[in-house]
Design a protein that fits this description.
Blueprint (H helix, E strand, L loop, with lengths): L2 H4 L2 H13 L6 H13 L15 H17 L48 H12 L3 E4 L6 H11 L10 H24 L14 H14 L4 E6 L4 H7 L5 H9 L19 E8 L2 E7 L9 H16 L6 E8 H6 L1 H8 L12 E6 L8 H4 L16 E5 L3 H18 L3 E6 L17 H9 L3 H11 L5 H22 L33 H11 L10 H16 L5 H14 L4 E5 L14 E2 L6 E2 L12 E5 L5 H11 L6 E5 L10 H8 L2 H5 L6 E5 L14 H6 L7 E4 L3 H13 L6 E5 L13 H6 L5 E2 L10 E5 L3 H12 L4 E6 L1 E3 L3 H8 L7 E9 L5 H12 L3 E6 L10 H16 L2 H5 L1
Parallel strand pairs: 2-4, 2-5, 5-6, 6-8, 7-8, 9-12, 9-13, 13-14, 14-16, 15-16, 18-19, 18-21, 21-22
Antiparallel strand pairs: 1-7, 3-4, 10-11, 15-20, 17-19
């Protein structure tokens, strides 16, 4: 809503005139309002310095006019190549402000507008329109910081948003447009009909990116992390990241020897690229285009995670690493992960010093027009929640685009905040090169068909200004065509090696192959005691909650006695030992500092001052940092961020904890597209650990299952580890294994809820000292004469043990499968060798039969035992659990009855 619509104009004007004469004559509210109004307007002269050649009433109206153009001048901007430019709008009519045509010749006193004028109102109006209503529409008056508004005004208004490019710069710009257009035309000719997601229609993005990156380098950036979907991706790789044409053509030729291929691979317009560019003798730049699946905006938080990790590795501030995200208009408005990523922008655990967002605004999403895709005027309106500037740029004005690119880089550098650049253009062909847009948008594509390409339009402009002639253009075109033809000739019809893309050097020593070989993860007893003493004592004068004090004392006593170490205690000990060995830890998720079940307390607070204290960052001899962040209330965005962080820092233990395991449902696309398949598709390794509370405690459908079955369905080619542990010691060792193993694989842990405080789910100190992680655990009451083996995993184990003790059974042993995948076949066979008399084998689980581990383990265990595996558990169900407590108890008891028999039967 414009300023004139917000308040009654006559009242404002009368109060304003009174305030100008004597600020003390109006109420404090009005005084405060007018001071803020003048700051918002860019620093109007105060009441004691005002000079007015025109009547005071007109001067007041003019200042409102200046404010209005700054605020909503974008609605009159000429931004759409396919539509005539708007000529007027009622909210910006002179009548709206009580200004007559005869007033245009009035000479005005100094106004807040910073552009040059001759003093007359008509000249001021021309300056306002030129600045805010030409090829750049700016939304920035929603920014609440007057310094940011003033900063932008000082860079836009004096030059009226029109850069004065030198002839050399214009020729470079022209060459970039020719390269972009001819590259697409060449691909279309040589590989007709092959999907490439052409940039054509959005060509201005290439010089825009080039200028944005160049200015970032001027502002001391040395790395750019780039994320984008399909459109224009190949063009960006060649003409911004410097990927050779030959490498692109090889991907079209598919000339690789099948014996050389690694993993499943991905389509060419999803692949990433790491480039090291030497810009000058003493300026270099590393650019990383992050791999991106078809789920459009899913890469956004991944890019932010990569950028944050690279910033922390460099330890040179956020300016050193510059994140850029390129979006489509429909996706930016429609995908929820965009809002999640924007929300991270200024959060302590996720901020990256500002991201520049570029929207390639094709004004269509596949076949859907904007009026069917969003409920807002602009596709960028969601970004207003950040109070950052939004620039709408005419897609056929490359000079305006590069001007905005420089401005965006400078704003990000100066304020550490996001910027949005909306390049309003079009899509010359359909959604892809095989799509027919005339089926659904015939009128739109009739207009597009008549549009010359941008390189031709800009060439005409420079020719009219006598900066280039036809001979120059012919030479330019010949040189580009020759380079394309040579690259094609070098590749076409030849065999080629599978590309070994560069990646960050930190990964050079990390293996990609999983091994079942045990990793030494125990630590000496004296070290455990020393760690426990530091973890469970607070500084002098620090006053923790009395309940917390008792908890810390209990943890310390458990270590000193060597008995009763619970889950959270083991976790803290594992993390402390990891930090002491030089591996940083990053833990994030909803309420992870305390822990959903009030079990962790990695950050404790003084009960009187509220000051935090983090024991894991106060260890003697500590070599690495513990980072714990209570996340925003989101899953997909946060997990995507942590994945990006994990593929960048191999020597950091990166953990994401779901508040309840089923919350991972909201991040399923990240799990499917990145975590489970990233290595196979893109050779990207990750050591990300997912902590997913799982187990049937009568908490209903949504607080029971972490959907173990879904992860197991994704398991293949040793792509990740999926575990469901039963002891704190096992948890201790697997956390340490995650950073000490020579390989990196994602680790999915079904973590407990009730077992956090279960009296049987504790470990002895010796188990942390001398043991290691075991993928399958033998029965503690092993009976080699047993005739039946019960396999289980997780929490149900303790229920079975208790029932067996009640029944005093000795002919059944219980083996715990701690690691589902990679499946420990050899270890299971070895244990079964102890029970040669067993001829009945059962699988026991809490989950319904169509969930949990049953479908996964059945064929594998039957192959090992040679016997049909008996199922014990809930019947197939549409919902993971019942919401009725009585039925839950009945079902839970029935599992024990079916597995071992009922206590009632034993008594009778």
């Amino acid at each position: 809503m414009s300023f004139p619509e917000t308040y009654h104009l006559d009242l404002i004007e009368s109060q304003y005139r009174q305030w100008k004469q004597d600020p003390g004559s109006v109420s404090k509210d009005w005084d405060f309002f007018f001071q803020g109004f003048e700051v918002a307007a860019g620093g109007m002269p105060g009441p004691t310095t005002a000079k007015s050649a025109a009547p005071a009433s007109l001067q007041t109206k003019v200042e409102r006019l200046v404010y209005a153009y700054r605020n909503i001048g974008h609605i009159l901007s000429c931004m759409d190549p396919l539509e005539a430019c708007p000529m007027d709008h009622p909210l910006l009519s002179l009548e709206r402000f009580g200004i007559n045509v005869t007033d245009l010749d009035q000479t005005m006193a100094e106004t807040s507008f910073l552009g040059r004028t001759n003093g007359q109102l008509k000249d001021l109006l021309t300056g306002l329109k030129s600045t805010y209503c030409r090829s750049i529409g700016v939304e920035y008056m929603h920014l609440q910081d007057p310094d940011e508004r003033r900063w932008l005004q000082e860079r836009m208004e004096p030059i009226q948003n029109k850069p004065d490019l030198e002839a050399r710069e214009k020729k470079i710009l022209l060459k970039q447009l020719y390269q972009a257009a001819m590259f697409e035309a060449f691909l279309n000719k040589k590989y007709m009909g092959v999907t490439r997601f052409s940039l054509e229609g959005g060509d201005a993005v290439i010089p825009l990116l080039d200028r944005l990156v160049a200015q970032a380098v001027e502002n001391s950036s040395r790395e750019v992390i780039l994320g984008m979907a399909h459109r224009g991706r190949l063009n960006v790789q060649c003409h911004v990241l410097g990927k050779p044409y030959e490498e692109i053509f090889r991907e079209f030729e598919s000339c690789y020897d099948p014996g050389q291929l690694l993993g499943s691979g991905d389509v060419k317009y999803h692949n990433g690229y790491l480039a090291d560019l030497q810009l000058s003798e003493n300026k270099s730049l590393r650019m990383f285009l992050v791999n991106n699946p078809s789920h459009l905006e899913a890469v956004d938080p991944v890019v932010e995670g990569v950028a944050r990790a690279r910033q922390e590795l460099a330890n040179k501030g956020s300016a050193h690493v510059f994140p850029i995200l390129i979006h489509g208009d429909a996706a930016f408005a429609g995908q929820g992960v965009v809002a999640e990523t924007l929300n991270m922008s200024q959060l302590a655990g996720y901020k990256t010093g500002g991201t520049v967002h570029i929207i390639i605004n094709n004004q269509i999403g596949y076949t859907t027009l904007p009026e069917d895709a969003r409920s807002t005027r602009y596709s960028t309106d969601i970004a207003k929640m950040l109070m950052v500037p939004i620039f709408h740029v005419h897609g056929e004005n490359p000079e305006a685009a590069v001007h905005v690119g420089k401005l965006a880089a400078d704003y990000r550098h100066h304020f550490g905040k996001d910027v949005v650049i909306d390049v309003i253009c079009y899509r010359r062909y359909g959604h892809n090169e095989g799509d027919e847009p005339y089926f659904t948008q015939p009128l739109m594509y009739n207009r597009i068909k008549e549009r010359p390409s941008l390189h031709a339009l800009y060439a005409q402009e420079l020719s009219a200004d006598s900066l280039v002639d036809q001979s120059y253009l012919d030479t330019l075109q010949s040189e580009i065509q020759a380079a394309l033809e040579k690259a094609y000739a070098d590749v076409h019809g030849t065999d080629c090696l599978f590309p070994q893309d560069k990646y960050f050097e930190e990964w050079d020593s990390i293996q990609s192959t999983y091994t079942h070989n045990a990793v030494s993860t125990g630590i000496p007893e004296n070290q455990l005691k020393k760690i426990a003493n530091q973890l469970n004592r607070v500084p002098d004068g620090f006053r923790p909650n009395s309940k917390l004090k008792r908890l810390l004392d209990k943890r310390l006593a458990a270590i000193e006695s060597g008995k009763g170490i619970d889950w959270a205690n083991a976790e803290a000990l594992a993390m402390a030992s990891i930090l002491l060995e030089g591996f940083p830890i990053r833990l994030s998720g909803q309420d992870v500092g305390r822990g959903t079940f009030s079990q962790r307390h990695s950050v404790i607070f003084d009960a009187q001052t509220g000051q935090p204290y983090t024991p894991l960052n106060n260890l003697q001899g500590q070599k690495a940092k513990f980072m714990v962040y209570n996340s925003l209330l989101a899953e997909a965005g946060v997990l995507g961020f942590e994945y990006g962080y994990s593929i960048t820092q191999p020597n950091t233990l990166v953990l994401w904890e779901a508040q309840f395991g089923d919350f991972a449902n909201n991040a399923q696309c990240v799990i499917d597209l990145f975590i489970a398949s990233g290595q196979s598709k893109w050779q990207r390794l990750s050591g990300l650990t997912l902590l997913l509370p799982h187990g049937w405690e009568g908490l209903g459908p949504e607080h029971s299952s972490a959907r173990l079955e879904r992860f197991l369905q994704l398991c293949a080619e040793e792509n990740m580890q999926v575990c469901n542990l039963t002891t704190p010691a096992q948890y201790f060792h697997i956390l340490r294994r995650q950073v000490k193993a020579p390989f990196r694989k994602p680790l999915v842990l079904m973590t407990p809820k009730s077992l956090l405080r279960h009296p049987m789910a504790v470990s002895d100190r010796d188990e942390l000292v001398s043991q290691k992680f075991e993928p399958v655990l033998d029965d503690l009451d092993s009976n080699t004469a047993a005739t039946e083996v019960l396999f289980c995993s997780g929490k149900i184990y303790y229920q079975l043990v208790q029932r067996r003790e009640e029944l005093k059974q000795s002919d059944k042993v219980i083996l715990r499968l701690e690691q589902f995948y990679p499946f420990p076949e050899k270890q299971i066979k070895k244990l079964l060798g102890n029970y040669k008399k067993a001829n009945v084998f059962s699988w026991v689980q809490e989950e319904p039969a169509n969930m949990g581990g049953w479908s996964f383990v059945q064929p594998r265990l039957e192959s090992i035992t040679g016997e049909k595996l008996r199922y014990v558990g809930r019947q197939p169900a549409a919902s993971p659990a019942t919401g009725f407590p009585a039925i839950y108890k009945q079902q839970q008891e029935a599992i024990s009855d079916q597995a071992l028999g009922s206590a009632a039967d034993s008594v009778s």
